[in-house]
Amino acid sequence: MKSKEKKTHWRGIHSPFFFDLARHLEGGGRYVDIAFDKTLVKAIDQIEALRQNLLRSSDYIEVHDCGAGSRVFKGKSRKVKKIARHVLQSKRVAFALLRVLIFWRSQGRRMKILEMGTSLGLTTAYLAASGWDVETWEGCQQTSNYARNNWKALGCDGQIKSKVGTFKSLMEESQGGWDVVFLDGHHDRDATLAYVECLKTQLNPGGAILIDDIGWSKGMKEAWAQLLKDPHWNATMTWRGKGWLFNRDGEIEQHLKLRKSYISLSKFNNMKLFTIVFAAITLLMSTQVQAQGTKEQMKTKSKAESSTATSGASKIFGEMLVFEINGKTVVKVSFDPIMGRMGSDKDALVASQQIANFKFTSMGQALNVLSSHGWMVEHVWTTLERSGAVQHFILSHEVAKLTPVSPWLSKSTTKGTKG
Ligand SMILES: C[S@@+](CC[C@H](N)C(=O)[O-])C[C@H]1O[C@@H](n2cnc3c(N)ncnc32)[C@H](O)[C@@H]1O
């Protein structure tokens, strides 16, 4: 059966509520409405320093597993460094959640979050840094003790209410009143469905459930498919292998699948060698094809060339150069000048001009912004110039997918282009 979920970038979301949620999850940088004061930055630095310590730790924990078992661990005695590597949410995810909570808090939303699955308590510490009331549940006493020591070391133990017991027993005795529940443990089909059913009565109006690992197993995929069918959850959004469930008054029914808004740098590094070789071959071939081209085609002076791919969609092209001057990264982005003649969506044009003029401080930042505007990296290669290495990126964007920048602001703005 075809999924009713619609894949989208955060920029393409029409509902302002979901646009804001997705923007804070995936936007980052200047796209989020958060003041990163010194206290917050320090808190994040301390949590990440602790993560590094845990990743090197020689401690063991005798784990009492109340969940769906593990694919990583065999016995009960588990290395802390292995738990830190395989079990905890990454910095990227925890930080994204923190941004959302801080944003919702600044909007005067209610602020009580439950984390089901404490583990070593690092994500809990992120949640606490948001200023929300945080409660966290853990089935294993030793693990919970370890987390409490971590919070003491971070100085956030006073902000966290921690309970030990099975999710089922704690849920039965809970008064509820949650605005957000992060279900990050016991990834089993029936258990997940049972928890969500019970949480329906424990959530505050408009509250949300975020379920981790909805694609972890066949059972979890079935659980998510079933939840999508439940009319109670009139708005859902999947994000990085997790699923958000909302029951929101006045929200039109929508089921979104949020795309990652950048190319992960680690993936990029892994692929670098491959792309350099691939780009070199492509370049060689294209040079030969160009040599046979007509004089007319050779007149093109622009660095970034536009073309229509013979096989499929029309694309527009751009170029990004990344190099270093005096230890500082310089990023130069340029788009084909044909952008200026491409139709009625002036917002998209202004956005691309802003990108071209913006002084990016890193390649990652630029890739993040470009991909969130729908630009894809077609080819990458590195040249060694006299001043040092220069990385070249050929960018492309499907013309039909040039979307309006703020779709809900102007009713007259149409998707795509007329020209
Ligand atoms: C994935 S870890 C949580 C990671 C944590 N949220 C983080 O990112 O830092 C899941 C935790 O939930 C606990 N857990 C799993 N099933 C449980 C259950 N039925 N009752 C109580 N705790 C459970 C496990 O012991 C484990 O520590």
List keywords for this structure.
39% helix; 2 domains; Rossmann fold; five-stranded antiparallel sheet; disordered C terminus; 13 helices; alpha/beta; 419 residues; binds S-adenosylmethionine
Overview of the structural elements:
The longest helix is centred in the middle third of the chain and has 27 residues, at 265-291. The chain starts with 5 loop residues before the first strand and ends in a 21-residue tail after the last strand. With 419 residues, it is of the alpha/beta class. The chain has helices spanning 16-27, 38-56, 80-86, 91-106, 122-129, 141-154, 167-173, 189-202, 218-229, 265-291, 295-298, 346-357, 363-372, and strands at residues 6-8, 60-62, 77-79, 112-116, 133-138, 160-164, 178-183, 203-211, 235-239, 242-246, 254-258, 307-308, 314-325, 328-335, 376-385, 388-398. The chain folds into 2 domains: 6-258, Rossmann fold (3-Layer(aba) Sandwich), CATH 3.40.50; 265-401, no CATH class. The chain binds S-adenosylmethionine (SAM). S-adenosylmethionine binds at residues 65-67, 87-89, 115, 117, 119-120, 122-123, 137-140, 143, 166-167, 184-186. Residues 65-67, 87-89, 115, 117, 119-120, 122-123, 137-140, 143, 166-167, 184-186 line the site of S-adenosylmethionine.
